[in-house]
Design goal:
homodimer; alpha/beta; 9 helices; 6 strands
Chain lengths: 207, 207
């Protein structure tokens, strides 16, 4: 199906500052990246299939990526480390200055330069109706937040981007396919962000 | 081994305000509790064995407990719920106003009255040398924090107690048996608490 797929970007797309390379084959991700004029921040998503079948292309891509997003089992597979903390730090050595490891219902971990680290829970949901698209929504939410609000990316921006990615993914899984996202408002996102913050902070305002 | 064990508390112990019933058989936990004069806050730990073999004793005990601590698989087993959010809320209906569900390397969840909820990550460790005792240390840390600093227990106190429980458990697993705890200082605990807070907060001070 994707055998003949070789994306050519329209001229206007090539000027974009923030690039999100979704999890297609690493050589195609590289092909997209080569068409960009001067991207300021490159985010890439990947998956087990490419770790297993296109490792050298993936390794090459990693050297040109600022933030890699992958899930816990993929991070372990890629590094042969059981500890996600070790896995994240090891992936950084392969190229990306920042790594986001998704843990599904357990949240996500963000590794930055030096000892920058952020542990993000998952927004608590009683029911998960359809997990399809949660990972893509998470990556899209992170990249979208950065592209929409940030000039120079600092660790605190990535931290906030990860929270927004988690919030958007939490909406995504509440209904079938993209249904929930279609009707989602900025106000609902902002409200859930605040709830999420309240549930996660160490020192809350007095009751 | 525990067949003849029937703990009798010395008179001075019976006056204690905060009680932690470690995870012995529920009928023995009840026997200890009955000896207490007027406990202000009762914490109980439990385990899969009692959920499977002493359920009615456990159910009876739950009605007299303020905070139940158990791990994720035990919470699921006890409630037949896959969602930990549903499981926590369901256990509250069985008696305890507060429930703490431990998720090992993924942290812990705290359920309180109304919609009070706290999601706590785990302090990130590259190596786990010996997980033995982590659960007991977590429970002891929670109860110890409450007993040492709190008069009337509010949700924010439990939140902080859970963080201290997590911090102590993170020290516990760093070395064999209780070795690390033996040499642990208050300053080390306070320092790790601050690091942990920095790694978990949504909005950090500017870099």
């Amino acid at each position: 199906m994707f055998k003949e797929f070789k994306p050519e970007l329209p001229e206007t797309y090539r000027q974009t500052d923030f690039v999100l390379l979704a999890n297609i084959e690493p050589s195609l991700q590289a092909h997209v990246l080569e068409q960009m004029k001067r991207p300021r921040f490159v985010v890439a998503d990947t998956m087990d299939l490419w770790i297993e079948t296109a490792r050298s292309d993936l390794d090459e891509l990693l050297r040109r990526v600022d933030l890699l997003i992958l899930n816990d089992s993929e991070a372990r597979e890629m590094t042969k480390e059981t500890s996600l903390i070790k896995a994240g730090r090891r992936i950084q050595k392969m190229g990306p200055a920042h790594v986001a490891i998704k843990k599904g219902e357990h949240g996500a971990l963000l590794f930055g330069e030096g000892d920058h680290f952020f542990s993000c829970g998952a927004y608590p949901l009683e029911d998960i109706h359809d997990p399809t698209g949660a990972g893509d929504t998470f990556a899209g939410g992170m990249a979208g937040y950065l592209a929409g609000t940030v000039k120079t990316v600092h660790f605190n921006d990535l931290r906030k981007a990860m929270i927004y990615g988690s919030v958007l993914a939490s909406f995504c899984v509440e209904a079938f396919s993209l249904e929930r996202l279609r009707s989602l408002s900025i106000e609902e996102i902002a409200k859930r962000y605040e709830m999420f913050k309240l549930m996660s902070q160490f020192e809350a305002p007095p009751e």
